[in-house]
Structures are given as C-alpha cells and as structure tokens.
C-alpha cells in the first residue's frame, strides 16, 4: 500500500492528497498517518507547500466525512430505533438509549466531532452519528474542517521535519490506533454482556 500511496502523491500532487484523504475517510485501512507525513516529506523537498498540503488533506477528509454524514442522515434516527428494537443486544442500544444519545449530541455534538477528528480509529466513524442525529450541516462541516486541519497540519509539519524518516510517524501512531480500537472492542463486549441485565432491571424499576 505504501508504494501505491507514494506513486499517487508523486504523480498527482495536491489532487493525489485530496483523493487519498477522501479514500482514507471512507476506507479506514488507508491511513492518514502514512499519507500526510509523506506529503510533509514532499514539502521538505519543495514539491509542495505546508499550507497547500494541509488544505488539500483537509478538503479530501471533509468530502469523505460528508459522505459518511450523508449515510447517517439517510439512515436516520427512526430507522435506527426500529433496528435497535429488533437487534438491541447486538447493537447495544435500545430506542430509549438512542433518545438519550440524541439529547447528548444536541448539547455536546460539536465538541464530540472536533475531538474525535483528532483520534485515530474514531476520525471517520464520528461522522455517522452526526448524520443520524441531524447535526446542522454547516456546523458539521465547520467543526470537521477545523479538527481535520489541526490533525492534518500536525502530520504534514512532522513529516516535513523528519524528512526521509517520515515513516516513523506511522510507526509511532500505530500503537495508539490499536489501543483505541482495542478499547472500543472491549467496551462493545462489555455492553453486550450487560445489555440484557441493565434493561431488564430498568423495565422492572
């Protein structure tokens, strides 16, 4: 994959950054931790600019996030409730939980989107609940762009400073991604185990 990313950036430049970061949001196996530090290396070679690479990476990520947001908006809260009513345990959600989540998202959704755009493993996923809970599109685009610009700019700058050693960034961040995904898996299993007990208790309480 690294060779394909390198060839794409070398041949397409800023357009390649936009394309790859769009794909990275829709297909997470393509990591921004590889794309943007490589763009930073190209900045160190005067083949891109720091601002240009950051803007291109941000644009591609926002486009990809909009696609996931649109899916969440299309799926919708009511459809999610019906799905939860049939498959609540495996989804670890009940219709009542979804109502609570909607209330929470209305109050804190902006911060949730911004912070998650800075966390490997959650950067793409947060766009779906934002769509499901109908976060206003303008706010979603603004906070997604801001969070993405911080993340993208940091990776480009680090790649620029490391030069030919830019691949170290991916190795440094890989354990963080694994910890986040592992924590999500443990949390999900705990929710599945506790789901029936918690909801039976609430039904009798």
Structural descriptors:
single chain; 205 residues; mainly alpha; 9 helices
Could you please describe the fold and organization of this structure?
With 205 residues, the chain is mainly α. The chain has one domain (2-204). It has nine helices and no strands. It has helices at 2-12, 14-26, 32-44, 50-75, 77-91, 95-116, 127-132, 137-162, 168-204. Helix 1 packs across helix 3.
The major pleated sheet works out as:
none
The number of domains is: 1
Unreliably modeled segments: none
Shape by Cα distribution: elongated
What share of residues are in beta strands?
Answer: under 5%
Element pattern in H and E: HHHHHHHHH
Computed over alpha carbons, the radius of gyration is 19 Å
Q: Name the structural class.
A: mainly alpha
Transmembrane segments: 12-30, 50-72, 110-132, 138-160
Pfam families: VTT_dom
Domain VTT: 30-161
Subcellular location: Cell membrane
